[in-house]
Amino acid sequence: MQFSQKITDLAREAERALAPIFAEIDEVSYQNTNKVMDAFREHRVAATNFDTTSGYGYDDRGRDVLDRIWADVMGAEAAFVRHQIVNGTQALTIGLFGLLRPGDLMCSIAGKPYDTLEEVIGIAGEPGNGSLADFGVRYKQIDLKDDAFDFEAIAEALNAELTLGKPVKVAFIQRSKGYLNRKTLTVDEIGGAVSFIKSISPETYVVVDNCYGEFTETREPCAVGADMIIGSLIKNPGGGMAETGGYIAGNARAVELASYRLTSVGCGLEVGATIGQTKNMYKGLFYAPHTTAQALKTAHLAAYMFEALGFNVEPKWSERRSDIIQTVITGSPDLLCRFCQGIQKGSPVDSFVTPMPWAMPGYTNEVIMAAGAFTQGASIELSADGPMREPYTAFFQGGLTYESGKIGIMSAAEAMLE
Ligand SMILES: *Cc1c(COP(=O)(O)O)cnc(C)c1O
User: Fold this and answer.
1) Interval 227-231 mean pLDDT
2) Measured from the CB, is residue 211 less than 6 Å from ligand 1?
3) What is the pLDDT confidence band of residue 365, given thresholds at 50, 70 and 90?
4) CA 89 to ligand 1 centroid distance, Å
5) Residue 362 pLDDT > 70, yes or no?
6) What is the residue with the minimal CA distance to atom 2 of ligand 1?
7) Is there a shared CATH topology between the 5-33+285-417 domain and the 52-276 domain?
Protein backbone atom coordinates (compact mmCIF):
# COMPACT_ATOMS: atom_id res chain seq x y z
CA MET A 1 0.00 0.00 0.00
CA GLN A 2 1.06 3.56 -0.71
CA PHE A 3 0.63 6.09 2.07
CA SER A 4 0.73 9.89 1.90
CA GLN A 5 3.76 11.77 3.18
CA LYS A 6 1.68 13.13 6.06
CA ILE A 7 0.68 9.69 7.35
CA THR A 8 4.12 8.19 6.77
CA ASP A 9 5.77 11.03 8.71
CA LEU A 10 3.21 10.79 11.49
CA ALA A 11 3.80 7.05 11.90
CA ARG A 12 7.54 7.66 12.09
CA GLU A 13 7.08 10.40 14.68
CA ALA A 14 4.79 8.10 16.68
CA GLU A 15 7.33 5.29 16.69
CA ARG A 16 10.05 7.62 17.95
CA ALA A 17 7.83 8.77 20.81
CA LEU A 18 6.71 5.22 21.56
CA ALA A 19 10.15 3.59 21.56
CA PRO A 20 10.47 3.44 25.39
CA ILE A 21 6.96 2.05 25.74
CA PHE A 22 7.59 -0.53 23.01
CA ALA A 23 10.71 -1.59 24.93
CA GLU A 24 8.61 -2.13 28.06
CA ILE A 25 6.07 -4.15 26.07
CA ASP A 26 8.92 -6.29 24.70
CA GLU A 27 10.12 -6.91 28.24
CA VAL A 28 6.66 -8.08 29.37
CA SER A 29 6.49 -10.31 26.31
CA TYR A 30 9.93 -11.74 27.14
CA GLN A 31 8.98 -12.49 30.74
CA ASN A 32 5.70 -14.11 29.73
CA THR A 33 7.39 -16.13 26.99
CA ASN A 34 9.93 -17.31 29.54
CA LYS A 35 7.08 -18.37 31.82
CA VAL A 36 5.39 -20.27 28.99
CA MET A 37 8.62 -22.00 27.97
CA ASP A 38 9.41 -22.93 31.58
CA ALA A 39 6.02 -24.64 31.77
CA PHE A 40 6.63 -26.44 28.45
CA ARG A 41 9.99 -27.65 29.78
CA GLU A 42 8.68 -28.57 33.21
CA HIS A 43 5.92 -30.68 31.67
CA ARG A 44 8.25 -32.20 29.07
CA VAL A 45 6.26 -31.21 26.01
CA ALA A 46 7.05 -33.65 23.20
CA ALA A 47 5.81 -34.16 19.64
CA THR A 48 3.58 -36.98 20.90
CA ASN A 49 1.61 -34.41 22.89
CA PHE A 50 0.14 -33.27 19.58
CA ASP A 51 -1.37 -36.69 18.83
CA THR A 52 -5.08 -36.62 18.28
CA THR A 53 -7.94 -38.55 19.86
CA SER A 54 -11.52 -39.18 18.78
CA GLY A 55 -14.71 -40.40 20.41
CA TYR A 56 -14.65 -40.06 24.18
CA GLY A 57 -11.07 -38.86 24.16
CA TYR A 58 -10.00 -40.94 27.14
CA ASP A 59 -6.35 -40.67 28.19
CA ASP A 60 -5.58 -37.79 25.88
CA ARG A 61 -2.16 -36.97 27.23
CA GLY A 62 -1.60 -33.87 25.11
CA ARG A 63 -4.85 -32.38 26.40
CA ASP A 64 -4.11 -33.20 30.04
CA VAL A 65 -0.56 -31.83 29.87
CA LEU A 66 -1.77 -28.62 28.23
CA ASP A 67 -4.26 -28.17 31.08
CA ARG A 68 -1.41 -28.36 33.60
CA ILE A 69 0.76 -26.00 31.56
CA TRP A 70 -2.14 -23.56 31.34
CA ALA A 71 -2.57 -23.67 35.11
CA ASP A 72 1.14 -22.92 35.68
CA VAL A 73 1.21 -20.06 33.19
CA MET A 74 -1.91 -18.50 34.70
CA GLY A 75 -0.54 -18.89 38.23
CA ALA A 76 -3.44 -21.22 39.07
CA GLU A 77 -3.81 -24.61 40.77
CA ALA A 78 -5.77 -26.10 37.89
CA ALA A 79 -7.12 -25.24 34.46
CA PHE A 80 -8.79 -26.60 31.39
CA VAL A 81 -8.53 -25.37 27.84
CA ARG A 82 -10.81 -26.83 25.21
CA HIS A 83 -11.64 -26.31 21.55
CA GLN A 84 -15.18 -27.51 22.38
CA ILE A 85 -15.88 -24.20 24.13
CA VAL A 86 -17.38 -22.10 21.33
CA ASN A 87 -16.54 -18.62 22.67
CA GLY A 88 -15.83 -16.51 25.73
CA THR A 89 -19.51 -16.28 26.59
CA GLN A 90 -19.82 -20.06 26.81
CA ALA A 91 -16.66 -20.31 28.91
CA LEU A 92 -18.11 -17.72 31.31
CA THR A 93 -21.41 -19.59 31.34
CA ILE A 94 -19.66 -22.83 32.23
CA GLY A 95 -17.80 -21.15 35.07
CA LEU A 96 -20.85 -19.39 36.52
CA PHE A 97 -23.18 -22.40 36.28
CA GLY A 98 -20.41 -24.50 37.78
CA LEU A 99 -20.27 -22.41 40.96
CA LEU A 100 -23.76 -20.99 41.48
CA ARG A 101 -26.67 -22.87 43.05
CA PRO A 102 -30.33 -21.95 43.61
CA GLY A 103 -30.63 -19.18 46.18
CA ASP A 104 -27.00 -18.08 45.78
CA LEU A 105 -26.05 -14.49 45.14
CA MET A 106 -23.79 -13.41 42.28
CA CYS A 107 -22.45 -9.93 42.84
CA SER A 108 -20.83 -8.11 39.92
CA ILE A 109 -18.50 -5.59 41.56
CA ALA A 110 -17.13 -3.89 38.44
CA GLY A 111 -20.45 -2.71 37.07
CA LYS A 112 -22.39 -4.19 34.20
CA PRO A 113 -20.84 -7.35 32.79
CA TYR A 114 -20.31 -7.96 29.07
CA ASP A 115 -23.48 -7.65 26.97
CA THR A 116 -23.74 -11.33 26.10
CA LEU A 117 -23.79 -12.27 29.80
CA GLU A 118 -27.00 -10.37 30.45
CA GLU A 119 -29.16 -13.17 29.11
CA VAL A 120 -27.01 -15.78 30.84
CA ILE A 121 -27.55 -14.05 34.18
CA GLY A 122 -31.19 -13.33 33.35
CA ILE A 123 -31.16 -9.54 33.56
CA ALA A 124 -32.16 -9.44 29.88
CA GLY A 125 -34.01 -11.71 27.52
CA GLU A 126 -37.03 -13.96 27.99
CA PRO A 127 -37.58 -15.78 31.27
CA GLY A 128 -37.77 -19.54 30.94
CA ASN A 129 -34.74 -20.05 28.68
CA GLY A 130 -32.58 -21.42 31.48
CA SER A 131 -30.72 -18.37 32.71
CA LEU A 132 -29.16 -18.29 36.17
CA ALA A 133 -32.22 -16.31 37.31
CA ASP A 134 -34.49 -19.12 36.08
CA PHE A 135 -32.61 -21.43 38.44
CA GLY A 136 -33.12 -19.06 41.36
CA VAL A 137 -29.68 -17.44 41.35
CA ARG A 138 -29.89 -13.86 42.57
CA TYR A 139 -27.89 -11.04 41.05
CA LYS A 140 -26.59 -7.76 42.40
CA GLN A 141 -24.47 -5.16 40.65
CA ILE A 142 -22.12 -2.65 42.19
CA ASP A 143 -20.82 -0.01 39.82
CA LEU A 144 -17.28 1.28 39.86
CA LYS A 145 -16.86 4.68 41.50
CA ASP A 146 -14.46 6.98 39.65
CA ASP A 147 -13.10 3.93 37.84
CA ALA A 148 -12.25 2.18 41.13
CA PHE A 149 -13.95 -0.48 43.22
CA ASP A 150 -16.61 0.85 45.59
CA PHE A 151 -15.28 -0.91 48.68
CA GLU A 152 -17.95 0.47 50.96
CA ALA A 153 -20.76 -0.94 48.83
CA ILE A 154 -18.89 -4.23 48.38
CA ALA A 155 -18.45 -4.64 52.14
CA GLU A 156 -22.13 -3.90 52.64
CA ALA A 157 -23.20 -6.54 50.12
CA LEU A 158 -20.83 -9.17 51.55
CA ASN A 159 -21.96 -8.50 55.12
CA ALA A 160 -25.65 -8.46 54.20
CA GLU A 161 -25.33 -11.96 52.77
CA LEU A 162 -23.28 -13.21 55.73
CA THR A 163 -26.06 -11.95 58.01
CA LEU A 164 -28.40 -14.24 56.06
CA GLY A 165 -26.10 -17.08 57.01
CA LYS A 166 -24.07 -17.64 53.83
CA PRO A 167 -21.42 -15.91 51.79
CA VAL A 168 -21.94 -14.11 48.48
CA LYS A 169 -21.18 -17.14 46.31
CA VAL A 170 -19.54 -15.30 43.38
CA ALA A 171 -17.99 -11.86 43.27
CA PHE A 172 -17.62 -11.18 39.57
CA ILE A 173 -15.06 -8.82 38.03
CA GLN A 174 -14.69 -7.95 34.37
CA ARG A 175 -11.05 -6.98 33.90
CA SER A 176 -11.32 -5.30 30.52
CA LYS A 177 -13.51 -2.29 29.88
CA GLY A 178 -14.99 -4.32 27.04
CA TYR A 179 -17.33 -1.96 25.24
CA LEU A 180 -17.99 0.22 28.26
CA ASN A 181 -16.83 3.71 28.97
CA ARG A 182 -14.55 2.96 31.87
CA LYS A 183 -10.94 2.20 32.62
CA THR A 184 -9.65 -1.33 32.37
CA LEU A 185 -8.72 -2.81 35.74
CA THR A 186 -5.11 -3.74 36.38
CA VAL A 187 -4.06 -7.02 37.99
CA ASP A 188 -2.92 -5.02 41.04
CA GLU A 189 -6.34 -3.43 41.39
CA ILE A 190 -8.02 -6.82 41.07
CA GLY A 191 -5.62 -8.16 43.72
CA GLY A 192 -6.70 -5.36 46.05
CA ALA A 193 -10.35 -6.32 45.59
CA VAL A 194 -9.60 -10.02 46.16
CA SER A 195 -7.81 -9.33 49.46
CA PHE A 196 -10.61 -7.05 50.58
CA ILE A 197 -13.33 -9.58 49.74
CA LYS A 198 -11.47 -12.48 51.36
CA SER A 199 -10.89 -10.46 54.54
CA ILE A 200 -14.66 -10.13 54.98
CA SER A 201 -15.97 -13.26 53.29
CA PRO A 202 -13.21 -15.85 52.75
CA GLU A 203 -15.55 -18.38 51.13
CA THR A 204 -16.69 -16.08 48.32
CA TYR A 205 -15.38 -17.17 44.92
CA VAL A 206 -13.81 -14.28 43.05
CA VAL A 207 -14.38 -14.89 39.35
CA VAL A 208 -12.66 -12.74 36.72
CA ASP A 209 -13.71 -12.29 33.12
CA ASN A 210 -10.14 -12.16 31.80
CA CYS A 211 -11.03 -11.59 28.12
CA TYR A 212 -8.53 -9.32 26.30
CA GLY A 213 -6.33 -9.05 29.39
CA GLU A 214 -4.08 -12.10 29.07
CA PHE A 215 -0.33 -11.42 28.78
CA THR A 216 -0.68 -7.64 28.81
CA GLU A 217 0.99 -7.81 32.24
CA THR A 218 3.42 -10.30 33.74
CA ARG A 219 0.80 -11.75 36.10
CA GLU A 220 -2.77 -12.94 35.64
CA PRO A 221 -5.47 -12.43 38.29
CA CYS A 222 -5.03 -15.95 39.75
CA ALA A 223 -1.57 -14.88 40.88
CA VAL A 224 -3.22 -12.27 43.12
CA GLY A 225 -5.80 -14.65 44.53
CA ALA A 226 -8.69 -14.79 42.06
CA ASP A 227 -10.46 -18.16 42.35
CA MET A 228 -11.37 -18.43 38.70
CA ILE A 229 -10.36 -16.65 35.50
CA ILE A 230 -12.05 -17.18 32.16
CA GLY A 231 -11.20 -16.29 28.58
CA SER A 232 -11.50 -16.95 24.87
CA LEU A 233 -8.90 -18.55 22.60
CA ILE A 234 -9.68 -16.33 19.62
CA LYS A 235 -8.41 -13.45 21.72
CA ASN A 236 -5.00 -13.07 23.40
CA PRO A 237 -4.19 -16.55 24.75
CA GLY A 238 -4.84 -18.38 21.48
CA GLY A 239 -1.97 -16.38 19.98
CA GLY A 240 -3.79 -16.21 16.64
CA MET A 241 -3.14 -19.93 16.22
CA ALA A 242 -6.03 -21.59 18.05
CA GLU A 243 -8.93 -22.10 15.65
CA THR A 244 -11.56 -21.74 18.39
CA GLY A 245 -11.98 -22.47 22.10
CA GLY A 246 -11.90 -21.15 25.63
CA TYR A 247 -10.33 -21.75 29.01
CA ILE A 248 -10.96 -21.66 32.72
CA ALA A 249 -8.18 -21.55 35.32
CA GLY A 250 -8.29 -21.19 39.08
CA ASN A 251 -8.30 -23.00 42.36
CA ALA A 252 -8.67 -26.77 42.13
CA ARG A 253 -12.21 -27.02 43.51
CA ALA A 254 -13.58 -24.17 41.42
CA VAL A 255 -12.09 -25.64 38.24
CA GLU A 256 -13.41 -29.09 39.14
CA LEU A 257 -16.92 -27.68 39.60
CA ALA A 258 -16.68 -25.92 36.24
CA SER A 259 -15.45 -29.13 34.60
CA TYR A 260 -18.74 -30.80 35.59
CA ARG A 261 -20.60 -28.19 33.57
CA LEU A 262 -18.14 -28.44 30.68
CA THR A 263 -18.94 -32.13 30.23
CA SER A 264 -21.08 -33.71 32.93
CA VAL A 265 -20.99 -34.43 36.63
CA GLY A 266 -18.79 -37.45 37.05
CA CYS A 267 -17.02 -37.17 33.68
CA GLY A 268 -15.35 -33.80 34.26
CA LEU A 269 -12.02 -33.49 32.49
CA GLU A 270 -11.53 -37.19 31.74
CA VAL A 271 -13.30 -36.92 28.40
CA GLY A 272 -13.18 -34.65 25.35
CA ALA A 273 -11.59 -35.68 22.08
CA THR A 274 -9.06 -33.24 20.68
CA ILE A 275 -9.68 -34.14 17.01
CA GLY A 276 -6.44 -32.59 15.83
CA GLN A 277 -6.71 -29.24 17.62
CA THR A 278 -4.06 -29.78 20.29
CA LYS A 279 -1.02 -28.59 18.38
CA ASN A 280 -2.67 -25.27 17.47
CA MET A 281 -3.46 -24.66 21.11
CA TYR A 282 0.10 -25.39 22.25
CA LYS A 283 1.49 -23.28 19.46
CA GLY A 284 -1.03 -20.55 20.26
CA LEU A 285 0.04 -20.40 23.89
CA PHE A 286 3.67 -20.33 22.76
CA TYR A 287 2.93 -17.32 20.53
CA ALA A 288 0.42 -15.61 22.85
CA PRO A 289 2.80 -13.31 24.80
CA HIS A 290 4.40 -12.13 21.56
CA THR A 291 1.13 -11.76 19.67
CA THR A 292 -0.41 -9.81 22.56
CA ALA A 293 2.63 -7.51 22.48
CA GLN A 294 2.06 -6.92 18.76
CA ALA A 295 -1.57 -5.98 19.42
CA LEU A 296 -0.51 -3.67 22.27
CA LYS A 297 2.01 -1.86 20.08
CA THR A 298 -0.59 -1.47 17.35
CA ALA A 299 -3.01 0.07 19.89
CA HIS A 300 -0.37 2.52 21.15
CA LEU A 301 0.49 3.54 17.59
CA ALA A 302 -3.16 4.15 16.78
CA ALA A 303 -3.67 6.17 19.96
CA TYR A 304 -0.74 8.40 19.04
CA MET A 305 -1.68 8.87 15.39
CA PHE A 306 -5.40 9.50 15.84
CA GLU A 307 -4.82 11.88 18.71
CA ALA A 308 -2.39 13.81 16.54
CA LEU A 309 -5.06 13.89 13.83
CA GLY A 310 -7.42 15.59 16.28
CA PHE A 311 -9.55 12.72 17.61
CA ASN A 312 -10.29 11.82 21.19
CA VAL A 313 -8.79 8.43 21.99
CA GLU A 314 -8.92 6.15 25.00
CA PRO A 315 -6.50 5.08 26.42
CA LYS A 316 -3.97 7.82 25.53
CA TRP A 317 -0.81 6.78 23.70
CA SER A 318 1.41 7.11 26.78
CA GLU A 319 -0.85 5.11 29.13
CA ARG A 320 0.14 1.57 30.19
CA ARG A 321 -2.47 -1.02 29.35
CA SER A 322 -4.15 -4.02 30.90
CA ASP A 323 -6.07 -5.03 27.78
CA ILE A 324 -5.71 -4.62 24.01
CA ILE A 325 -8.78 -2.48 23.28
CA GLN A 326 -8.37 1.01 21.84
CA THR A 327 -11.14 3.47 21.13
CA VAL A 328 -11.20 6.38 18.71
CA ILE A 329 -14.12 8.79 18.93
CA THR A 330 -14.70 9.62 15.29
CA GLY A 331 -17.56 12.08 15.88
CA SER A 332 -19.60 11.30 12.77
CA PRO A 333 -21.23 8.34 11.00
CA ASP A 334 -19.18 9.06 7.88
CA LEU A 335 -15.85 9.03 9.73
CA LEU A 336 -16.74 5.88 11.67
CA CYS A 337 -17.51 4.11 8.40
CA ARG A 338 -14.29 5.36 6.82
CA PHE A 339 -12.29 4.20 9.82
CA CYS A 340 -13.69 0.67 9.63
CA GLN A 341 -13.40 0.57 5.84
CA GLY A 342 -9.76 1.67 6.12
CA ILE A 343 -9.02 -1.09 8.66
CA GLN A 344 -10.67 -3.63 6.37
CA LYS A 345 -8.67 -2.44 3.36
CA GLY A 346 -5.48 -2.84 5.40
CA SER A 347 -6.28 -6.43 6.42
CA PRO A 348 -4.71 -9.59 4.99
CA VAL A 349 -8.05 -11.33 4.28
CA ASP A 350 -11.13 -9.85 2.57
CA SER A 351 -9.27 -6.57 1.96
CA PHE A 352 -11.49 -5.94 -1.10
CA VAL A 353 -14.70 -5.94 0.96
CA THR A 354 -16.38 -2.66 2.00
CA PRO A 355 -17.98 -2.97 5.43
CA MET A 356 -21.36 -1.24 5.88
CA PRO A 357 -23.50 -0.62 8.98
CA TRP A 358 -26.19 -3.26 9.54
CA ALA A 359 -28.83 -4.19 12.09
CA MET A 360 -27.16 -6.99 14.03
CA PRO A 361 -29.37 -9.24 16.11
CA GLY A 362 -29.27 -8.23 19.76
CA TYR A 363 -28.07 -4.67 19.21
CA THR A 364 -30.22 -1.54 19.51
CA ASN A 365 -28.28 0.49 16.95
CA GLU A 366 -26.84 -0.51 13.62
CA VAL A 367 -23.24 -1.66 13.91
CA ILE A 368 -20.35 -1.45 11.46
CA MET A 369 -17.57 -4.02 11.70
CA ALA A 370 -14.22 -4.57 10.07
CA ALA A 371 -12.70 -8.03 10.24
CA GLY A 372 -10.22 -9.28 7.70
CA ALA A 373 -9.09 -12.24 9.77
CA PHE A 374 -7.75 -15.73 9.10
CA THR A 375 -9.95 -17.08 11.89
CA GLN A 376 -13.55 -15.89 11.68
CA GLY A 377 -14.31 -13.29 14.33
CA ALA A 378 -10.87 -13.54 15.91
CA SER A 379 -10.30 -10.27 17.69
CA ILE A 380 -6.62 -10.91 18.41
CA GLU A 381 -6.43 -10.17 14.68
CA LEU A 382 -6.86 -6.53 13.66
CA SER A 383 -10.58 -5.85 13.90
CA ALA A 384 -12.87 -2.92 14.59
CA ASP A 385 -16.48 -2.22 15.24
CA GLY A 386 -18.66 0.66 16.19
CA PRO A 387 -22.31 1.20 17.01
CA MET A 388 -23.90 3.85 14.78
CA ARG A 389 -24.72 6.29 17.56
CA GLU A 390 -23.22 9.37 19.20
CA PRO A 391 -20.31 9.93 19.56
CA TYR A 392 -19.54 7.35 16.84
CA THR A 393 -16.81 5.57 18.71
CA ALA A 394 -14.68 2.98 16.94
CA PHE A 395 -13.55 0.14 19.19
CA PHE A 396 -10.67 -1.78 17.83
CA GLN A 397 -8.10 -4.30 18.86
CA GLY A 398 -5.62 -6.84 17.63
CA GLY A 399 -2.91 -7.16 15.04
CA LEU A 400 -1.14 -10.50 14.67
CA THR A 401 2.06 -8.69 13.77
CA TYR A 402 2.93 -5.09 14.55
CA GLU A 403 3.88 -4.52 10.92
CA SER A 404 0.48 -5.60 9.60
CA GLY A 405 -1.27 -3.76 12.43
CA LYS A 406 0.62 -0.61 11.48
CA ILE A 407 -0.47 -0.98 7.86
CA GLY A 408 -4.09 -1.35 9.01
CA ILE A 409 -3.88 1.75 11.20
CA MET A 410 -2.21 3.83 8.47
CA SER A 411 -4.86 2.67 6.03
CA ALA A 412 -7.63 3.74 8.45
CA ALA A 413 -5.96 7.11 9.02
CA GLU A 414 -5.63 7.64 5.27
CA ALA A 415 -9.30 6.76 4.70
CA MET A 416 -10.35 9.33 7.32
CA LEU A 417 -8.21 12.08 5.77
CA GLU A 418 -9.63 11.61 2.27
C1 LIG B 1 -15.02 -10.96 24.13
C2 LIG B 1 -15.47 -10.81 25.51
C3 LIG B 1 -16.32 -11.73 26.12
C4 LIG B 1 -16.84 -12.95 25.43
O5 LIG B 1 -17.29 -12.71 24.16
P6 LIG B 1 -17.34 -13.86 23.04
O7 LIG B 1 -17.63 -13.07 21.81
O8 LIG B 1 -18.45 -14.76 23.44
O9 LIG B 1 -16.04 -14.55 23.00
C10 LIG B 1 -16.66 -11.51 27.43
N11 LIG B 1 -16.18 -10.45 28.11
C12 LIG B 1 -15.35 -9.56 27.56
C13 LIG B 1 -14.85 -8.42 28.37
C14 LIG B 1 -14.97 -9.70 26.24
O15 LIG B 1 -14.13 -8.82 25.71
Assistant:
1) 98
2) yes
3) confident
4) 6
5) no
6) 211
7) no
Q: What is the pLDDT of residue 418?
A: 85
Cα–Cα dist 264/261, whole Å:
6
Q: Assess contact for 410 and 343: CB atoms under 8 A.
A: no
Distances, alpha carbon 93 to alpha carbons 77, 88, 350, 367, 413, in Å = 21, 8, 32, 25, 38
Considering only CA atoms, which of 144, 143, 92 is closest in space to residue 121?
Answer: 92
Tell me the CATH number for domain 52-276.
3.40.640.10
Residue 265 has pLDDT above 90, yes or no: yes
Instruction: Count CA atoms closer than 13 A to 97's CA, side-chain side.
Output: 22
Ligand 1 and 89: CB distance under 6 A: yes
Cβ 108 under 6 angstroms from ligand 1: no
Q: In the predicted model, what is the mean pLDDT of the chain? A: 97
Give domain limits for the chain: 5-33+285-417, 52-276
pLDDT digits (tens, 9 = 90+) for 104-132: 999 999 999 998 999 999 999 999 999 99
Does 232 contact ligand 1 (Cβ within 6 A)?
yes
**CATH superfamily entry for domain 5-33+285-417:** Methioning gamme-lyase, C-terminal domain (3.90.1150.60)
Q: Is the CB of 176 under 6 A from ligand 1?
A: yes
Residue 364 pLDDT greater than 80, yes or no = no
328: three-class secondary structure by DSSP: strand
Ligand 1 atom closest to residue 114's alpha carbon, by position in its atom list:
11
- Tell whether ligand 1 has an atom less than 6 A from the beta carbon of residue 114: yes
